[in-house]
Each structure stands twice: as structure tokens, then as C-alpha cells.
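User: quick one, fold this
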Amino acid sequence: MRFTSSHLLLSLGILLGVALALPARADVALGAKTVTVPGLKMQDVQARISEDAQGGLKLSLRATRADIPTLGWRHVALDLQGGLQRDVHMRWLFDGVLQLAGAPGAALGNAKVSMVIDEAANTLEVDITQGQAQASTALPLDQPTHAQISLKAVPTVWLQGLLGTLWSGRATAGKLDADMALDMADKGLQASGQFALSGTGFDTPSGTIAGQAVNGNGRLNIDTTTSPSRIDLDASLRGGELLLGPIFAHLPDHPVQLSLTAATRGGAVDFTRLRVADADALQFDGSMAFNAKGDLQKLRLDKLQSRFPAAYQRYGQAWLTTLGLRDMRIDGQLNGSLDMNGDGLRSFAFDTEGLDLADAEGRLAVKGLRGALDWSADADRPATTLSWQGLQVYRIANGAAQSHWQSRGGALSLQHPVEVPVLNGRARIGDMEWRPAAAKGRRLSTSLAFTGIDMAAFSRAMGWPEFQGTLGGAIPSLRWVDDRFELDGGLSVNVFDGFVDITRMTLQGPFGPSPVLTGDIHMRQLDLAAMTTVFDFGSITGRMDGSIDELRLVNWSPVAFRANLLAGTGGRISQRAVNNLTAVGGGGAAAGLQGAMLKLFKTFSYKRIGLNCTLQASVCHMGGLDNDADGYTIVEGSGLPHLQVIGHQTQVDWPTLVRRIKAAIEGNGPEVH
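Assistant:
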């Protein structure tokens, strides 16, 4: 912006010099196919000096194409019209109108121009106004490549041509005030001075560097005479939004100090020096680099000091969202460092005297985090200790614990097993090895063991009907491979006086928008009386075995499984349970009862109960003890009165089946469609 205007002012002075070189008499015309002066090339040039009615001189200068390479201007049409006269001090004075067509940002489409050429003082002064925008320059006649520039309320989009010579970004909005010194050379320019921005916007094709409604002031130095070009900036910014790769800032109303040194070449940008200081939120020194495509090549943050919640609200929200952690609540402080390149993390270290954090969805929460972690992909690091007062993962509350870590050979390893209180029981974390630099393959491995986990407390935490029992088991190997967790071994839940075994579990994208859980569940000798009491389904006695194989949950909702449930040793079943089972199978409230007389009985003896469901593509393919053209048997009666419950719907829409089961266990009566 400032440089676009400054170059333009220099060019106008050169143009006026061309005109003044013509014989100083009326009706002199000059035409040239090409006119070339340092930094400017014009084609199809028409210049004319004529006498006006008052005896003065009129200057007309037109060029169908003007190129200023250092500005990035190409194919700009130029039309300069005005009056030319000498004053009593023998200075040449020019007042007129400049119209450019095709300049970036529609710069100077209709501007007023005033010039003063003082040969005795060896100076050229140029003033341009268009609307609220004002630009002024002063330069020596014997060194027209050096100028002092003053700009007020100049649209930043006028700088687009110059920006294109420095990097792939473009200005989109805002205004600029500046006082700059400018030196032009054959291969570029050098400029330095003070500036102030108002409502500035800019972006890049990749979207990795951008700003919106940014205000600020500071000092800027640019040198495009060498390769790469160099930019030095020391600024105080306030308000608006700023994006630098993974750092997205909602700038506060008070000043934030930004200092940087950048080298640019072929669209690539290397911030060799980067310093941010927002006193009550975030401070760091570092460096950052992007290739020509906008891909992050390196990011190094040193002397990082963050204060929450302000640091999260202003700088961390977007980055944590990319990790699947949305709407976080964070309080406390965190200091540290970070080093990463285009392939991923190279090192990190942090320490805290107290940090609390939680996401709004209840998937992760830590209270009273204290201590440090220190890891490097290339070097061994000192041992550290990290402790917490409370840890919650997916609504499961864990008690206080302390862990000891050390980085060796690129792996951050747990030095001693950690026992964590969980739901009146304990979880033991065995040998753990985490490789933060691994972008794929095995990234983490550990072992887990659970003892005495209270299933009543677990069901309350999950929002389920409360039932008694304990959970225990061992996972000899838990691995984080690519973007999923894989578990060897299994968990055994002692519940309803029987056992539920969970094996072959995997969890993909645990903190993403749609985590995927897979596994197999096997049930052994569950007491149906205890189960149906808890779920208010209607009374059934006896024991049940079953399995849910190839279970797949997306965002914790089932999308596929093969379920087989069998109560094969007999028992008794209530009228309400009969009706609910009938509804699940798609019959009427009394379907399967041999005669209206059976409705008089409250309970019935049964020999077997069986129900199968294979879920595919949101449809549950139903079955039972046996299948024929008329349906499938769900309940096979025993004795008198003889009971037979038949399911007639072999394919049921999964949401419909869920509504039926929910209505049954909530005591609202079966829903049948």
C-alpha cells in the first residue's frame, strides 16, 4: 500500500520530467511506441503540451500500457491531464487529474494530483488525493530513486501488486497511514518507516496465513533487492483475527506485541524470528516456515508462557478443536516449549503449578494437574513427574495419582506402574511407551488391569439404569496404531450373578467427531430376574446366555452387530414381559397366546426364550428359536396354560426397534408399527 503509492508518486515525477523535457511552447505533441526509464516502461505513449485560454499550459499524457515490475504492476493504462505553470520563484507547478485502469485494487482510478518541481532546491514534491486517501512524496531531482513518502487513509488493496512480488498473499480490506523512506533499485526496493493499520484484512491461497479486521501500528522494513526478500516487523496489534498456521488469534482490544523477521521466495515464507507478547494470556519466542503451497514446514515455540482461560479463548481454541477438543474450560497456567516440522513433533516440554481443563461434552477433564513432561525425538531428557487430583475420561471419574516419566530413544516412557482409583475400584497402568513423533504405525503401547470396579457407580456415570456388580480384567496389551486403539485380552464384568466378557476391542478416533468402537461381547448365565427388575421390562426368571459379535458403534450408536440371546433352561415369564417380547417381534399385544383365556394368567412357564438380530444398513434382521414362513418362535411354552410367542417381522428398521425397546423398559407400553 505504502510502497504502491510511493512507486506511483516516483513514476508521476518521472512522467512529468518527460513532459517538461519537451519544448516549452504551445501545441507540442510527442508520440512514442515505447518509453523506458528506470523502474518504468510505457507503451503507445501520447504526450502533448498546449496553451490554454488564459495563456497557461495544458499537459496531456496517455499510455495504453504501463509496467512497473517492482510494484508487480502489469498492463496498467494511464491518463494524466492538468495545467502547468511557473510561479514567481521559477518553480514548475502542476495541478491535474490522474486516471489509472487495471491497477491492483482499482488504485487511483480518478485522483487529483499536484506537483512542484523546484530545480533550485533540487526537489520534486507530489501530492495525490482520492476520496479520503492522501499520498505525498518528496525526492531529489538528481536521485529520483530515493523518496520520503507520507500516506493517510490509503486502501490496503492498493498494495496488492507489491504483495505479489513478496509472497502469495493478497490484501482484502483496511486502510493505511504511513511515513516511509524508499529506495528503488534495478532488482527491487528498500523501504522502512512507521505505519498504522485500520480494519486490515489479508489472506493467502492456502488459507494458512490470514487476517481480518486487524488494527495496529509499528515499524516495518522491507528489502526486495536480494533473494530471498526480507521483511522486519515490530508492531502493536489490537482487535480482529490473525492466523499464522496453527496459531489462530482472536486479538484483544488492548495492544499485543508482534515482532518478526521473514524471508520470502517463490511464495514460501520463513519466519526466522517470531515473538508474541500478550501480557495476561500468551508470550513466546519462536520461528515458523511455510512452503509455497502453504504447508507448515517448521514451528518452534520457546519461552512459552500461557495464562488461562485467556490464552485458550484468544489463541488456543481453533488448534484444540482440530484435535477434537471443543468448547474447553481451562484455568491455570502452563509454561513450556514446542518444536515440530512438516513430518510432525520433534520435541516438547511443559510444566505447570496448577491446571484444570474439561471439554463441554464430558469426554476429558483434568483437575489439579501439576508437574512436567519433557520429550525429544532425538535426545534423552531428564526424568519428570506429573500428578493430578482428578481425571475424567468419557464420564468415568478417576482419583488422584502421580506418574513418573522419562524420554529415551524417541519414546516417552512411564517409569513405574501407576494405580488410579476408579469407581470404588482400581485401575493399574503398567509399562507405557508413547512415541509422539510417530504419525502412523504404533504410537503407544501399555497394559491395563482393573479390579473391583463398581458397576452401580459405572451405570450411574453412563446414565444407565443402576445395577449391581463389579468389573475386573486385564488388557495385557493396549496399542495405539495409526488412528485407532487396539486391545488384546479382555474385560470381565460380574453382573446379574453372571458374567459379561468383552474382547477384541478397538477404538478409532476417540476424541474426534465420530469415534468408532468395535468388539465382541459374550454373556454367561445372567440372572434374568435381576436383569428384568433393573430394566423394568416385566418379570422373567431363569438364566440367559448370549453373544453380540462384530459389534460396531459410530459415535457410540450401533451400526452393525450379530446378536444371539438364549434362555435355554426354562423359567417363568410375566404377562407384561410376554407383551413386550411380542412387540419387539412385531406382533400384537396378545399375539401368540392360544386363546383369550390365557390373558387371565399373570405368569407362565416357559421352556426356552430366544431372540436374534443381525444389524446391517440400519435394518435389524430378526430371528428366534426356529424360523418358518409364518415367522419365528421367541418364547416356547412349557406346561399349562401353554404359551407360544411368535415374531412376524423378520426385518425391522433399527430406529423403530430402539423405540420399541425403550418404550418397553420405560413402562410406557409397547410401540408396534
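User: anything notable?
Assistant: The first strand starts at residue 28 and ends at 37.
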